[in-house]
């Protein structure tokens, strides 16, 4: 719906770009940070590493594997592969994002401005993730469309699990 211009926003991340671009290759898209507190100064883009490469401490060829990883981040060919071919947002300070994905460019910009933070869900009270999912599923499946009741049930659940009720 978003890529077809039938809705203004979607709640997604950089992974959505390839699908959007297949449907609407000329569509201008971008990401913005969502507030997680009432203080606008705390508004940061939730970002973290979605993949890592490592060498097992039980590897029989750890030195070779480390050499390959070092080659990727230090050689021109390796950096080209990482930054241009894979379009990785680099975690290393001496590298800059060089890809064409505009959503990744937005994330890289937030990173460069030190405006990124943790996802909010690790801050949720224990059990809220699973229990809130059940309540949202009930809202979707029962067809009542009672937004206010659903939001109140989520507030009540939060209060109960956080010990504020």
Overview of this protein structure:
- The protein has 165 residues and is mostly helical.
- It has a domain at 124-162.
- Helices cover 44% and strands 2% of the residues.
- It has 6 helices and 2 strands; from the N terminus they run αβαααβαα.
- It has helices spanning 17-23, 62-74, 76-85, 102-112, 128-142, 147-162, and strands at 45-46, 116-117.
- The protein has a two-stranded parallel ribbon with strand order 1-2.
- Helix 2 (62-74) crosses helix 3 (76-85) and helix 5 packs antiparallel against helix 6 (147-162).
In whole angstroms, the N-to-C terminal distance is: 39 Å
Q: pLDDT under 50 segments (min length 5)?
A: none
- What is the overall number of helices? 6
Classify the secondary structure makeup into a structural class. mainly alpha
Q: Rg to the nearest angstrom?
A: 21 Å
Q: What global shape is seen?
A: extended
Please, what is the average pLDDT? 89
Main β-sheet, in a few words? 2 strands, parallel
SS elements, strand count: 2
Strand order of the largest sheet: 1-2
What share of the residues does DSSP label as strand, in percent? under 5%
Helix content: 40-55%
What letter string, H or E per element, gives the SSE order? Answer: HEHHHEHH
């Amino acid at each position: 719906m978003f890529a077809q211009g039938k809705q203004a926003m979607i709640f997604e991340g950089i992974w959505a770009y390839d699908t959007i671009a297949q449907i609407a290759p000329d569509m201008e898209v971008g990401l913005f940070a969502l507030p997680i507190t009432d203080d606008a100064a705390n508004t940061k883009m939730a970002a973290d590493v979605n993949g890592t490469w490592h060498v097992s401490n039980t590897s029989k060829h750890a030195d070779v594997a480390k050499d390959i990883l070092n080659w990727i981040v230090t050689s021109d060919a390796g950096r080209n592969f990482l930054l241009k071919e894979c379009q990785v947002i680099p975690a290393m300070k001496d590298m800059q994002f060089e890809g064409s994905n505009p959503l990744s460019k937005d994330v890289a910009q937030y990173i460069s401005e030190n405006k990124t933070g943790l996802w909010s869900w690790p801050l949720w009270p224990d059990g809220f993730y699973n229990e809130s999912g059940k309540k949202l599923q009930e809202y979707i499946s029962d067809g009542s469309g009672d937004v206010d009741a659903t939001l109140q049930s989520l507030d009540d659940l939060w209060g109960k699990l956080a010990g504020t009720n």
